[in-house]
Amino acid sequence: MKKKMLKVFTFGEFAIYKEDKKIESFKSRKAMELFKFLLLNKNKKVPLLDIYDIFWPGFDDESARLNLNTTLYYIRKQLDISSEELGIKEDYCLFSMKDIYIDFEEFLKLYDEAFKEKEINRRLFLLLKASSLYKGDLFDENVYDEWVRDQKEYFKRLYIDVLLEIGYLYEQLKDKIDAQYYLQKAFYYSQREDAWLSLIRIYENNHEKDKAISLFNQYKEFFGYNEYPVSQKNVNYSTLETPNIERNGNVLSLDLFNIILDLERLKRDKDYVMIELKLKKKVDKSILDKFCEQIRREDVIYFGGDELKIIFRGIKDVKESREVVVKKVSDFFNEEKIEFSIINVE
Questions:
Q1: How far apart are the first and last CA of the chain?
Q2: 198 and 164 in contact (C-beta within 8 Å)?
Q3: How many CB atoms are closer than 10 A to CB 132?
Q4: Distance between CA atoms of 28 and 309, rounded to whole angstroms?
C-alpha cells in the first residue's frame, strides 16, 4: 500500500495536509509544537537534552524522555509516520521522513536555483515562484518562541532579498511599475537599509523627487533623529545630488555610505565589519562591478577610484568573521594583481 504524502505549510498560518485533506487539529498542542521544531531540524540528529530544555524544562531526564516518547507516538499515529522515520535513537531524536513536502524546503530550492541562474527571464520566474510561497513569517503564531527566532529572521531576510532582486530585474526589463511595486513591498515589510536606498533610487530615477524626500524623512523619523548623524557633516537631502547607487544597490555616494556606517555604529549589538582600503593606483569601473558580484545585497560600498570602503552587514559572529571577510577582500585584489593596503578594519 502506497504511503500517503504529507504537505506542510509553515509560512503564515501553519497547516498540514494528508493526501490534500487538511488535518484540523493535533492530539495535543505540545505534539504540534514539537513537530514544528522537528521540521526545522529534519534529517538532523537533535540531542535529547536540547529537546528537554525547550519542551520540558525543569523535568528530570527520565520524566522528560517519557513525555517525549508519548508525544512522538501521538505525532506518528496522527500523521502516519513510521518509528524509523521519527523516533529516539540512543541520545538523540531523528526525523527523516521522505514522503513529505515542506514549503520552506521548496522556497530554499527556488532561491538557490534563482540566484545561480544567469538568464534574466528564467531567474525572474523562479524568484516570483519563491515569493508566492511566502504567505507570512515562518510559524507566524510562534512569536515569542526562541527555538524558531533565528530561522524566522533568516527566512524573512531571504524573502526580502527575493523581493529586491525581483525589483532589480523588472528595472532591467524597463518595467517601472512592477519594479517599484516589489521594491516598495521589500521596504515596507522590512525597512531594511538596502530596501530603503533602492526605493529612494527608483523614485529619483522616475523623477518622483517629492516621494524620495518624503521617504528619506520617514526613515529619519523611524530612527528618532532630527537629522542623520554622519561622520563629516550633516546631509541636507534637498541639496544632495542624486546618490551614486548602482543597479544592485551596493555602491553608494560617500555621504550615504557614512549614513549607513553611523547607523550601524549606533546599534546596541554590533553585527557589521567595515574595511577601508587604499589602492596603489586608480582602477576602472569593471573592477568594481566584478567585486560587487562577490558580495551580498545587504553589504554596501563606497568607491573613489583609488579608495574603497566596504560594510559587511548582518554578521552573526563579528569576532570570528573579521578575519574571513578581510581575507575575502584581500584575495580578490591579489587575484586581480592590484596593489593595496588596508587602512582600517572595525
A1: 61
A2: yes
A3: 10
A4: 54
Looking up cell 566596504 gives: 310
HSE, side-chain direction, 13 A CA sphere, residue 112: 6
172 and 247 in contact (C-beta within 8 Å)? yes
Bridge partners (DSSP) listed for residue 275: 310, 345
The string of pLDDT tens digits covering residues 98-135 is 999 999 999 999 999 998 888 999 999 999 999 999 99
**Cβ neighbour number for residue 118 with a 10 Å cutoff:** 6
Examine the pLDDT at 315 and tell me if it is beyond 70.
yes
Distance (Å, whole) CA 308 – CA 323: 18
Question: How far is residue 182 from each of residues 172, 190, 242, 295, measured CA to CA in Å?
Answer: 13, 12, 21, 22
Instruction: Give the CA-trace dihedral at 46, 47, 48, 50, to 10 degrees.
Output: -90
> What is the C-alpha to C-alpha distance for residues 23 and 97, in angstroms, rounded to an integer?
18
Q: In which band, very low, low, confident or very high, does the pLDDT at 163 lie, cut at 50, 70 and 90? A: very high
Query: What pLDDT is recorded for position 233?
Result: 35
pLDDT at 239: 36
270 has pLDDT over 60:
yes
pTM of the predicted protein model: 0.67
